[in-house]
Design a protein that fits this description.
single chain, alpha+beta, five-stranded mixed beta sheet, about 55% helix
């Protein structure tokens, strides 16, 4: 859970009124002539209400519309965001489609950021490249300094504006595509229409998340007994659903889902189409529910329905909130529309095989009892067309609940492309990855990168967090320990997996695991860094890995893997310890996940790397 700002100490009336005030500002945004057509309201603007005192709140929120102002090019031509789709480069696959649209958006946004910073003084100190990544790619983890602050809400609104630009470009391109071009993307006109309908419904999760974000910052810590679907308000003993606290957005989403269900469409007759229709109907009921117990039951139905759709050959996937990131344990409002294309399906087959090999070898670390947990969950790789809601600030490349999902374009964009550069930090990496042309070498390393991502996800069901053993650790320590576990379990199994036909060799995977560790230290949020520090501290202390002359050097590969097994056994023992308490778990995290002097020196070096 991200830190709560000092504003969280406001009185109850102020907190509630601020939530309404944000709603009013969003109404102004909807009615602005610069607002995207999809979110502009036809309702007359109501007179502003005096809901809060003179202290300013989000005073730069309307200035995010600077992103939409037309630009005059040197040749005198006016560049309008609504025509951005015309700038998108030719594409022949769904991956190229999403990449080329994102590239056009980034080129457009680069010109806007200086003016946006000038208009909004509270963000003028932010690095422009990181700001671009946050607004265009939704990588808010690069702006850790804004966590829990009001400007985080402001930038979330700006990211929403950018997302609407991108979504409009995608919809226009899809709308103009003939059946042949749609075939290149792996869809037909009926599926295209469903995609557009889902994008229109899901986009409302953006303003819903903006309000949820403000609520999260101002409502204090949830009580220990809080549940994912029952939201608490300070001083109120009653719990509330999303539909109760955010009725405007929730009603819009439910109505759009209803329209999709009631429409007579050819996609419903495709294999898996009936499962998709049932799933959308369950989502609709969740956003109508004003009873927290009912919402909890419907959430279970959502998880089952999502898994059912993924298990079919239906190519369109609509991921909904299954976990909470911003304010644990509450579910983050989100939707992710993605397409299981031919290239993504090839990855799915490889991942499913890796899952099964890993499950078969869990006994090596005394975790054979969890092999069924790992193996029973479905695997799906897909390409994102629209990530809305919490995806504005936490756009995950992969998820483990309720199925193992990898979003191929986001994974490539955020991790795989960067991964080969980290060969430079590992002593001998060039040698162990030699013997193939550089292009093939890059492709191989990128495959290792995304396989690491999925192996991490496959490790989560080993001692699932939602069990008595997990709950003993306490909410905050469990969040960290669960990521430590997921980072260490699969590494300990590599030698045994290789004997069962897993690709690569021990030397390659030893180098690749360290490359992943370094990349995480460079780019990821604190909770993931703690997981890597746990590993790094031990490797340095035992002399198994040394840092000298700007490189990490493994002294003995077999000793390296033996150390990983010992570390995995230590983490799993935390769950098995019947005397474990939240206090003891927190003490373990403080002791084992804080960087040693050697690790801190290396982290400082990593932060200075140019890639």
């Amino acid at each position: 859970m991200k830190p709560i700002s000092k504003a969280g100490q406001r009185t109850l009336p102020e907190k509630m009124l601020l939530g309404r005030a944000i709603g009013l500002r969003m109404n102004k945004f909807r009615n602005s002539e610069n607002a995207p057509e999809e979110i502009r309201s036809n309702e007359p603007e109501k007179p502003p209400e005096k809901l809060i005192g003179p202290e300013p709140h989000l005073r730069g929120i309307l200035k995010t519309l600077r992103i939409l102002e037309p630009e005059e090019r040197p040749d005198g031509e006016i560049e309008n965001w609504k025509d951005l789709y015309e700038k998108v480069k030719p594409y022949h696959t769904m991956y190229e489609f999403t990449e080329n649209v994102r590239e056009a958006v980034c080129d457009y946004l680069i010109k806007k950021i200086p003016k946006l910073k000038e208009a909004v003084p509270s963000i003028e100190d932010l690095n422009e490249e990181k700001l671009l990544h946050a607004l265009a790619h939704n990588w808010f983890s690069e702006l850790e300094e804004i966590g829990g602050q009001r400007r985080e809400v402001l930038l979330t609104v700006a990211a929403h504006v950018v997302k609407r630009i991108e979504t409009l470009a995608e919809k226009k391109l899809l709308g103009e595509a003939d059946p042949k071009k749609l075939g290149e993307l792996g869809i037909d006109p009926s599926l295209r229409d469903l995609i557009v309908d889902l994008l229109d419904a899901s986009a409302k999760a953006d303003p819903l998340f903006v309000r949820f974000l403000a609520y999260s910052q101002l409502s204090g810590n949830p009580p220990e007994a809080a549940t994912p679907t029952g939201l608490h308000l300070p001083g109120d003993l009653k719990t509330h659903t999303i539909a109760e606290l955010f009725p405007h957005e929730a009603k819009f989403i439910a109505q759009r889902f209803t329209a999709i269900i009631e429409k007579d469409a050819a996609w419903k007759k495709r294999p898996g189409g009936d499962a998709m229709a049932r799933y959308i109907e369950v989502l609709k009921r969740f956003y109508e529910s004003k009873n927290t117990e009912e919402a909890a039951r419907i959430q279970d139905e959502i998880n089952r329905g999502y898994a059912e759709v993924v298990a079919t050959d239906f190519p369109i996937i609509l991921g909904a909130s299954g976990t909470g990131y911003y304010k644990e344990p509450y579910l983050d409002p989100e939707f992710k529309v993605s397409i299981a294309t031919a290239e993504a399906n090839r990855e799915t087959k490889d991942f499913a095989r890796a899952r099964d090999i890993m499950a078969d070898n869990l006994g090596v670390i005394g975790a054979a009892a969890f092999a069924g947990n790992v193996r029973k969950m479905g695997v799906k790789s897909s390409i994102i067309l629209g990530g809305f809601g919490a995806n504005l600030t936490f756009n995950a490349a992969a998820e483990e609940d309720p199925v193992y999902s990898l979003f191929l374009d986001e994974e490539i964009r955020r991790y795989d492309r960067l991964f080969p550069a980290y060969r430079n930090v590992i002593e001998g990496a060039d040698k162990v990855f030699s013997g193939m042309p550089e292009k093939a070498n890059i492709d191989y390393l990128e495959k290792m990168s995304r396989t690491e991502t999925m192996l991490h996800e496959f490790s989560h069901p080993v001692h699932p967090s939602e069990t008595e053993q997990g709950r003993r650790l306490g909410r905050r320590p469990l969040t960290i320990i669960d990521e430590v576990k997921a980072e260490i379990v699969w590494r300990a199994l590599i030698p045994d997996m290789l004997e069962d036909g897993f690709f690569g060799d021990k030397e390659q995977w030893a180098a690749a695991t360290l490359m992943g560790l370094v990349m995480c230290l460079k780019n990821e949020p604190d909770v993931y860094i703690k997981a890597e520090v746990y590993n790094l501290n031990s490797l340095f202390e035992q002399g198994i890995v040394e840092f000298k002359n700007g490189k990490l050097a493994i002294q003995n590969v077999d000793a390296y893997y033996a150390a990983e097994k010992r570390l995995a056994a230590e983490v799993l023992a935390l769950y098995d310890d019947e005397t474990m308490t939240e206090r003891k778990a927190a003490a373990w995290v403080k002791k084992r996940c804080a960087p040693s002097e050697a690790s801190q020196e290396f982290i400082s070096f990593v932060k200075s790397l140019p890639y």
